[in-house]
Amino acid sequence: MTIDKGQIAQNLMIFFVKIGPEIKKSISPTSLKPEDFLTNLPDVFPLEFANISPIYIRDIVKSLQPKNSLDSDGLSSKLLKFIVTEVCVPLAHIFNLSVT
User: Are 83 and 57 in contact (CB under 8 A)?
Assistant: First the structure.
């Protein structure tokens, strides 16, 4: 038995194109707005972030496993652990600027 991957892809595409309108037919119209369904939620307070300290960043990085595998920027945790004391102050500054 051979599997035609093109036919499988075609069938999936047809299914996902048709399913939205079919589901829509089964939903009764309403005059309610989406937020009307959120009446039982507690009051939500705005998020407040505390400043991130260089020591906090250093401690997080030091807790990483020293691996040679690279992230999407080409950095390894082993390298990051080696340079963390030099970069934790500017990183903390950048992080704190990004959440204010």
Answer: no
Tens digits of residue pLDDT in 51-94:
999 999 999 999 999 999 999 999 999 999 999 999 999 999 99
Structure tokens at 60: 């997080």
CA distances from 66 to 19, 78, 87, 92 (A): 47, 4, 17, 21
What is the CB neighbour count within 10 angstroms for residue 88? 21
SS (H, E, C) the chain: CCCCHHHHHHHHHHHHHHHHHHHHHCCCCCCCCHHHHHCCCCCCCCCCCCCCCHHHHHHHHHCCCCCCCECCCCCEHHHHHHHHHHHHHHHHHHHHHHCC
Residues 95, 75: Cα–Cα separation, whole Å:
18
Q: What is the pLDDT of residue 97?
A: 93
What's the mean pLDDT in 12-34? 91
